[in-house]
Design brief:
Order of helices and strands: HEEEHEEEHHEEEHHHHHH
CATH topology: oxygen-dependent coproporphyrinogen oxidase
Keywords: Heme biosynthesis, Oxidoreductase, Porphyrin biosynthesis
Helix content: 40-55%
GO molecular function: coproporphyrinogen oxidase activity
Number of strands: 9
Distance between the termini: 39 Å
Pathway: Porphyrin-containing compound metabolism; protoporphyrin-IX biosynthesis; protoporphyrinogen-IX from coproporphyrinogen-III (O2 route): step 1/1
Strand content: 15-25%
Number of domains: 1
Structural class: alpha+beta
Organism: Pedobacter rhizosphaerae
Low-confidence stretches: none
Enzyme class: oxidoreductase
Shape: globular
């Protein structure tokens, strides 16, 4: 790819990601019915910046972030070592979303789509969507995975199975021996050599994943928002949120990359819920909905 063409490609990726951010924010405001996103434009010392959009205290969304960034500059030594590269100048752009609902029967959802490059030989797309229900409803889980499989099958019959297994492995809390939720799809370092797709087709796949987010989550909100819930279910929600916090602070590669590249701390940690509880030695009784949910927090469940 020629230098001018490469620059145009980077600009196209960033522009289309911004459009995804705009569409999702509009759709979530409609779905919530009350909350509005507040936008903060920020610049990164060293190069680039982004648009952080946060909704707080909505009708359903207690705290949600839909962030866009496009940053560039010198890659820190620790990241160069992790990537096993010698080049300094990097470019990274993406959209990152985490939604924490106030209703314990509406799930937490996360999406990330991103593009990273150092040079012609070191560049790739990554991302995915995963769902973290406080209570696992099997019909909702099947719907969620079916929609992700459709998004993958539009580009490759192999993508869903491969990326679903990757999500199971990635969103795993090793010290708890449980998955963060019911998984989804997760992919990294996609390029023509390992996908049989062109760079433009991989970008189209990334956008397709982004466009899948809104219809999935608005459906899950509508299915559950009017259900009554108890104080016990609310307490369980806070308990499950604590697992989300543990994963993001201990294992999440996006959090680590943001911190190591001097990213904006408020944007990086917007993924954390407004409240989470760490009860001591919590073990739900067999037969309860809470105990049933724990049985689904394992790898390898076939939801489709």
């Amino acid at each position: 790819m020629e230098i001018e063409e490469k620059i145009m490609f980077k600009e196209e990726v960033a522009q289309r990601y911004q459009q995804i951010q705009d569409e999702i924010c509009r759709g979530l405001e409609i779905a919530d019915g009350k909350g509005k996103f507040e936008e903060e434009i920020w610049n990164r010392e060293g190069g680039g910046g982004g648009r952080t959009r946060i909704m707080q205290n909505g009708a359903i969304i207690e705290k949600g972030g839909v962030n866009f960034s496009a940053v560039h500059g010198k890659l820190p030594e620790a990241v160069k070592k992790a990537f096993n590269v010698t080049e300094d100048d990097f470019f990274a752009t993406g959209v990152s979303i985490v939604i924490h609902p106030n209703h314990p029967l509406v799930p937490i959802i996360h999406m990330n789509i991103r593009y990273f490059e150092l040079n012609e030989n070191t560049r790739w797309f990554g991302g995915g969507i995963d769902l973290t229900p406080h209570y696992v409803f099997e019909n909702d889980a099947r719907f969620f995975h079916h929609k992700l499989k459709q998004a993958c099958d539009d580009f490759s019959a192999e993508f869903y199975t491969k990326f679903k297994a990757h999500a199971d492995d990635y969103f795993y809390i090793k010290h708890r021996e449980e998955t963060r939720g019911i998984g989804g799809i997760f992919y990294d370092r996609l390029k023509p050599e390992n996908t049989n797709l062109s760079w433009t087709e991989i970008l189209d796949f990334s956008i397709n994943v982004g466009e899948t987010f809104l219809p999935i989550y608005t459906e899950l909100i509508d299915r559950n928002r009017d259900k009554e819930f108890s104080a016990l279910q609310k307490e369980w929600q806070y308990q499950r949120r604590s697992r989300y916090v543990e994963f993001n602070l201990v294992y999440d590669s996006g959090t680590k990359f943001g911190l190591e590249t001097n990213g904006r701390i408020e944007s990086i940690l917007m993924s954390l819920p407004p409240q989470a509880n760490w009860g001591y030695n919590i073990h739900p009784e067999e037969g309860t909905d809470e105990h049933k949910t724990l049985q689904f927090l394992k790898k390898g469940i076939n939801w489709v």
